[in-house]
Amino acid sequence: MFMQSLQLARTVAAQARTILKAGSRRTGMAAALGMAAAVAAPAALAEYPERPIQLVLSFPPAGATDVLARAVGQRLAQELKQPVVVENRPGAGGAIGMAYAAKAAPDGYTIYMAAVSNAAIAAATYSSQPADLQKDFVPVAGVGNVPHILVVPASLPIRTVPELIKYLQDAPGKYNFASQGSGTLSHLESELFRLRTGVDVVHVPYKGSSFALPDLMAGRSAMMFDSIPSALPHVKSGKLRLLAVASDKRVTTLPDTQTMGEAGIKDFGVNNVFGLVAPKGTPAPVIKKLADATRTVLASPELNRTLEAQGVQLQYTAPDAFGRVIQGEIQTWSKVAQAAKVKID
Question: pTM for the complete prediction?
Fold first, then answer.
């Protein structure tokens, strides 16, 4: 590599001397520097990545975003031959982690695992956001969908969605619902539930699933929409009861669990979209390398089996198409937030 660089420098210097003889010194030096930059830039990009990559997410460990980020990040590290270090930065409905990633150098060494549906909801509900998923990032690749499930404490006398509705209707304003935080998908799903059923329940936000679930299991909240990876273990342990999946289709790993639509709630089909984005200005060749590596990783049958068992449905989406998915989620949740009159200052 050193000898190649030395030969390159000699060639550029020779070309510069030729240019200097033909014109002014200033013009010749500018041309020489331009040629050097043009030749060196692709060489530098070809070396990417030369050091560890930071994968930022907006939620704490053990939740769906964390499970997905660590599984995909581990295999990206193998594909890119550099460590991929997961950085959890929870809080403010995802805004803290997203703002941190948006301010990072656009060099491909900081990427963001976007909980797209959450980000779309936050954009629609917060009066101001320190970062914007569309304006401050470029799409790298969609990685899949992590459906949420509706769970209640096992101590409650509730086994179906209609029973939950009646239970809440019999005591308006008495019970509350837990969420992963104000302006998260977990929050807006319950607001959509309120819109579709007319129940009166009070919102209690937490700083992620790992903080909300203990209170839910203890009966201090009546219900919660949460991701399968974080909530299902507590269903299996008998501390929570699973009522329905929030997605528009049944989940392969939960074939006997109804969708909200099948349980009688019309116009309730929520898909929890995830994907990778990079700070705006990240070079196109770097985006392509990351996208190609992600496509290879997501094609792994082993990874698909592992994550499917946890309720994660992997699906690669190319950068341009993923950008359109992001736009669609923003439009969808903007309408729900407006109908539910949810605004967070």
Answer: 0.76
At a CB cut-off of 8 Å and minimum separation 6, what does 301 contact?
A: none
pLDDT tens track for 114-139:
999 989 998 899 888 899 999 999 99
Q: Which residue has the tokens 């009861």?
A: 241
Give the C-alpha separation, 258 to 266, whole Å. 13
**Two domains, one topology: 53-146+271-340 and 147-263:** yes
Q: What are 288-338's pLDDT values in tens digits? A: 999 999 999 999 999 999 999 888 889 999 999 999 999 999 999 999 999
- DSSP strands (E only) in 71-179: 84-88, 110-115, 137-145, 148-153, 176-179
Residues 274/145, Cβ–Cβ less than 8 Å = yes
Confidence tier at 44 by pLDDT (50, 70, 90): very low
Q: Are 313 and 147 in contact (CB under 8 A)?
A: yes
DSSP state of 94: G
Encoded tokens for 68: 């997905």
Query: At the top level of CATH, which class does the domain 147-263 belong to?
Result: alpha beta
Q: Where along the chain do its domains lie?
A: 53-146+271-340, 147-263
DSSP of 165-186: HHHHHTSTTT-EEEESSTTSHH
CB count in 10 Å sphere of residue 262: 12
Predicted confidence (pLDDT) per residue in 243-297, tens digit: 999 998 899 889 999 999 999 999 998 988 999 999 999 999 999 999 999 999 9
Record the tokens describing residue 268, joined without a space.
Answer: 């309730």
Determine how many CB atoms are found less than 10 A away from the CB of residue 269.
14
Q: Is CATH 3.40.190.150 what the domain over 53-146+271-340 is classified as, yes or no?
A: yes
